[in-house]
Design brief:
The complex is a heterodimer. Chain A is α+β, with helices and mostly antiparallel strands. Helices cover 37% and strands 32% of the residues of chain A. Chain A has helices at residues 10-26, 29-42, 44-115; strands at residues 122-133, 139-142, 155-158, 161-169, 174-178, 185-190, 195-203, 206-213, 223-226, 237-247, 254-261, 270-277. Chain B is globular. Chain B is built from 6 helices and no strands. Chain B is mainly α. Classes of the chains: A alpha+beta, B mainly alpha. Chains A and B meet through helix 1, helix 2 and helix 3 of A and helix 1, helix 3, helix 4 and helix 5 of B.
């Protein structure tokens, strides 16, 4: 009996093998990992030689590839340099275009001012806004001053509406007190009510017209015009619009009307200062 | 069945699979023929049923040993073993003798064993990365193209040139 193979059926062999496979599958990774490491250690020589040959076979074309890569990198560097130059030129062009646009915009602004017949008698000085200052953000610094003919008390237009008066002036710059400044007092007329009053600044882009004698309530959106005063053009110029109104608590016959500027002062980039009447 | 020759052959194939086969790639470095898959089909087609079962599982063991799929062994032992056995049974129904059929058999086996291994890995862990295109198409396809030509030297080495006869039907 010795030396004889024990005949096992295919089905049993298959079953044993599947069981063996499952045992391997669910064995801890440390155990199977040790088997794999043993294999790698036992056949380290052929494996390493094979790896070296493989790597060497890849190295040969790599030198050729390397030259291609170098050429590619040089071209990329050149491209980057050209792109930088292109970017500079593009920025230069953009600056020039912006300057041209700015000049065109000033021309348009002045042309619009001239389009009002009464304003033809006036002289305007275009001034760029430097900053919005003041505690209540109710003052503007502009880049024109005494040298350009600006003087304290001159009225200032923004987006063709009255926004304030020049309150201080230096040689090159000037400060404009906006109509929303708490110290600002401007005589105005509420058009729809045909009522007059004094508009006092309240800061934060609002003002209030107190003690307005009116038979009816002002509606939101009603226009408020600055009245004629010395140095004023002599034509009505819109200054604000009604936000809301309420009866005066002391005298129910009078109204307090809250208004706001009709010009987006926060985004204003330039203003027109009324210099003098011709 | 010459088991010593078989062991040497499988061992050499396993070593070649992780070394020299890296040189044979098409389209990208990850697409290369699977020598052990080719051997699996060879032995499944040309061995007796019991030998085919043992050979299939042994080749799967070598495959797991040489290039573990997810850090542990088992998925390819089972997938190679089961599908090698099935192919052997199928060969009893119709002979896979012509080169195109052998190539097609390798291709199909490559797909099913890759899918089965991938699913078996799920029993233990989250599979690291599975490229369906590469593992289920390109690699089996390349193996299927090369495989029939590898059969000749393998058959010479194993003294198994000439397909196993189909089992007579009673």
């Amino acid at each position: 009996m010795t030396g004889k193979w024990v005949k096992t059926s295919k089905r049993m062999t298959f079953t044993y093998c599947v069981l063996g496979g499952l045992i391997f599958l669910f064995s801890p990774a440390s155990v199977t990992g040790r088997l794999q490491l043993t294999y790698a250690r036992l056949f380290s020589w052929p494996l390493s030689v094979g790896r070296q040959v493989t790597v060497a076979s890849r190295t040969a074309p790599v030198s050729e590839t390397g030259r291609t890569i170098d050429t590619h990198r040089q071209l990329q560097d050149k491209l980057a340099t050209l792109q930088t130059q292109h970017r500079k030129l593009r920025n230069h062009l953009a600056n020039r275009e912006a300057q041209l646009d700015e000049a065109q915009r000033k021309i348009d602004e002045l042309a619009r001012l001239r389009s009002v017949p009464e304003w033809n008698r006036m002289s305007f000085q275009q001034a760029g806004v430097i900053s919005l200052t003041g505690q209540a953000q109710s003052e503007l610094m502009v880049d024109r001053g005494q040298d350009d003919g600006l003087a304290v008390g001159q009225y200032v237009l923004g987006d063709l509406s009255m926004i304030g008066v020049v309150s201080a002036v230096s040689a090159q710059t000037a400060r404009i007190k906006l109509i929303t400044d708490p110290t600002s007092r401007i005589p105005v007329r509420v058009e729809q009510l045909d009522a007059r009053g004094v508009m006092e600044g309240r800061g934060s882009g609002t003002a209030e017209i107190s003690q307005v004698p009116a038979r009816q309530q002002a509606r939101p959106g009603d226009r408020v015009y600055a009245l004629n005063t010395p140095g004023f053009p002599g034509v009505p110029i819109v200054a604000a619009e009604v936000v809301d109104s309420r009866r005066d608590p002391d005298n129910p016959m009078l109204w307090s009307i809250r208004v706001r500027t009709v010009c987006d002062i926060a985004n204003l980039t330039s203003v027109a200062v009324i210099i003098s009447e011709k | 069945m010459r088991w010593l020759r078989f062991a040497v052959l499988v061992l050499v194939a396993a070593i070649l699979q992780t070394t020299f086969v890296d040189m044979i790639w098409i389209l990208n470095a990850n697409i290369k023929p699977d020598l052990l898959l080719i051997l699996l089909v060879f032995f499944a087609v040309r061995c007796d049923p019991t030998d085919a079962v043992i050979a299939s599982f042994a080749i799967g063991f070598a495959a797991d040993l040489a290039s573990p799929t997810a850090g542990f062994m088992g998925p390819r032992i089972l997938s190679f073993g089961v599908f090698g056995t099935l192919l052997n049974d199928l060969h009893n129904v119709f002979a896979i003798q012509r080169l195109p059929f052998q190539g097609a058999a390798i291709f199909v086996m490559g797909i099913v064993t890759a899918l089965a291994s991938h699913l078996l890995v799920y029993l233990r862990a989250e599979p690291a990365g599975f490229s369906i295109a590469r593992q289920c198409f390109w690699q089996p396809a390349l193996s299927g193209v090369i495989g029939p030509f590898v059969f000749l030297p393998v058959g010479w080495w194993m003294h198994m040139n000439g397909s196993r006869r189909r089992r007579p039907r009673h």
